[in-house]
C-alpha cells in the first residue's frame, strides 16, 4: 500500500494521518460508513460520516491512479523506453491528467501524419528545424527529397518535418498543463442553435445564442447545453480565444528571434493547436466540466433525497389511502397500523360518474369499520376535487385528511417489488397502498422505489449514472441507519440498506421471520442463515426489537456494549430498565469510571444519550398540511395571491413548490428570501411548508412564478431586484421536476 496516499488524504481533509490509516483499515475489513462513524469513534478519533466517506472515496481515486500508473510503467518498459528520470516523473504524478500527459509520447497510436513523416525519414530534418537555429532550410530540405520515400519536393519535406514538430509540441507536458489551465480559466462556452432547427428546438430557446465563461458556468446550464447538443439541436464550443492559446504556445516553444527555422516552428505550432491541441484540450475540459456539473447535480439530488426520506412520519396508525381519478374512479385502500392491507374498493365521487352519495357512504363505513385515523390522498389528477369531497363528509374531527406526494407511486406499482408484495392486486391498488404507507413512514416506503423516479433530482438522467447510484445508495443507507429499523416489521428493501446486510441477508431475515415468527432478541438474529459474526457486528446496532426481554434490544446501544451498561446498572444497585427510565439515576453515572482501552468518552456519551431516549425516532413530528381552498387549477391563480405550499424539489437556480394546482411553481433563487443567498438550501428544504406569492402565471406553457419575499413586488409594484444579482436564465429543458462538498450532500 502506498503510504504516501495517507499523507495526501490527511492533508486534503485536514485530519491526522493515524485517523486516515485506521479508517482505511476498518473499511478494508468490510466495515460500513455508518458503523464506523457510530460505533468506532475511539478508533477514528470521532470522524463523522462525511469524513469517513471522504477518506473512502479519495483513497479509491488514489488506488485507481496507482493501477493506471502500473499499466503505464509496464507499457513503456515493454517498449524499452523507460528511463530512470521518466520513471521518477511517473511515480511522482499526483493526478490522472499529469500521468496521461507523461504517457502520451509513448502511447500506442494509429498512423498519424507524424508517423508517416518519420517513415519517410524526415525526423532528422524536424530535429534540425526544432533547434530553431539559423540554417539554409531549402538546402537542408533538398537532402530529403527521395522518390523511394515519396518525398517529391522541398515543400513536402518541410511539411513532413512540421507534422513531426506539431506532434512533439502537442506532447509537451508543461505546455499541456498550462493550456489546460487556460481553457478552464479563460475559456468560454459558446452555444448556438443548429440552423433550421429553431422551431424544433424551442425548449432550448435560451441557448440559441449564448456564451458564458467556462469557469463560472453553473451546473444546470452546462447540463442543459450538453443535452441540447446531444439531441442535435445545439452546437457547443468550449475554447479560449485562439490568439491567447497560440500566444501561450509560442511563449513556451519559441526560443530564438525570427529566422526561417522559427518560422517553420511557428507554422507547426498553429497546425498543432488547430489539429491536435485544441480538440484534445476541448475534450478534456468538456469531461472536466461535465464531471463538475455532475457532482453539483448529484449533490443537489442527494440532499433533496435525504430531506424527503427523513420527512416526518405519521407513525403506526390506521390509514385510508385514496389514489384519486376521474373516469376510472378513486382506488381506496384501508391499511392497518403496520401497513397491512385490510380492504380495497373503488369510489366515484368525481366526474363523469359523480356518485357522491354512494362514495360518501363507502368512505364513512370504512372509516368506522377500520377505525381510520388518517386519510391520505395522492396529489395527482383529481386530487383537489377528491380532497374537497372527503372533507365535505363530516367525518370525526380526529380523522386527519392530508395530501401525499405520489411521485414514484406508479413506478412502484409496476415494479417487481410490488408484484412480489401484492401479486393479486392491480397497478392502481398497489399505487394506493404506496400512497398510504408513504404517509405512515416515508423512509420505509420510498426505499422500494428507484431514487431517480422520486422526482427530486436535477438532470438525473444526464449525469454519471455510476456516481449517481453510489451517492444515492450512500444517502439511503445513511438515512436508514440513522433512523434505525424494526427488524420484525421491516420489508426486505428496507433491511437491504442496513449496515452489513445487503439483499441476500435481508431476504434471509424475512424468510426466517416468516418461518419462525418475530425475533425475540437481537442475539436470535445470529440464527439467520449466512449471517455471520461480521455481518451481525455491522448490523446489530441499527436493528431494533421492541418488547424484547432485554430493553437494550430496542435501542441504538450495540450488543457489544450490553455488559458495560449492565455494569453501570449494577454499580448503582438498579436494573438496566431502571437506568433507562430515570434521569435521576443516570445522573449518578460517572463516565470516567468506565473508560478503558476499547471504550472512550465518545462512545460512553453516546450510550448515555441513547439510554435517555432508547430507540426514539430522530425525525420531526408529523404536522397536517392543507392547500388553499378554492385554488385547484392553474386557471384559479392570480398574480399577487398568497398561498401555502410544500417544497417538492430544489435545484441550483431555485425551488419548486406544490401549491395544489397539479403544476409546481418555481421560486427563483432571487425570490427565495429578502436577503442575498447563494444556494437555495440556505433557506428551504424538500417537504418544507412555505407561504408563497404568485408572481407570474403562463397558462399556455404551464409555468408558474412564485416568490417567498416579504415584499416581492417592491415599492413600485415590480419584483424587487435590490438584494440579488441579475436573475439567471432558466433553461426550458422540460426536466425541472425531475469530493467533500459532494459528500456533504450525501451525509449532511
Automatic annotation (TrEMBL):
PANTHER family: 30S RIBOSOMAL PROTEIN S1, S1 RNA-BINDING DOMAIN-CONTAINING PROTEIN 1. It holds the Pfam family HHH_3. InterPro entries: HHH_9 (IPR041692), NA-bd_OB-fold (IPR012340), Ribos_protein_bS1-like (IPR050437), RNaseH-like_sf (IPR012337), RuvA_2-like (IPR010994), S1_domain (IPR003029), S1_Tex (IPR044146), Tex-like_central_region (IPR055179). It comes from Mongoliitalea lutea. This is RNA-binding transcriptional accessory protein. Residues 640-709 form the S1 motif domain. GO terms for cellular component: cytoplasm. One of its GO terms (molecular function) is structural constituent of ribosome. The lineage of its organism: Bacteria, Pseudomonadati, Bacteroidota, Cytophagia, Cytophagales. GO terms for biological process: nucleobase-containing compound metabolic process; translation. Residues 706-735 are annotated as: Disordered. SMART domains: S1 (SM00316), YqgFc (SM00732).
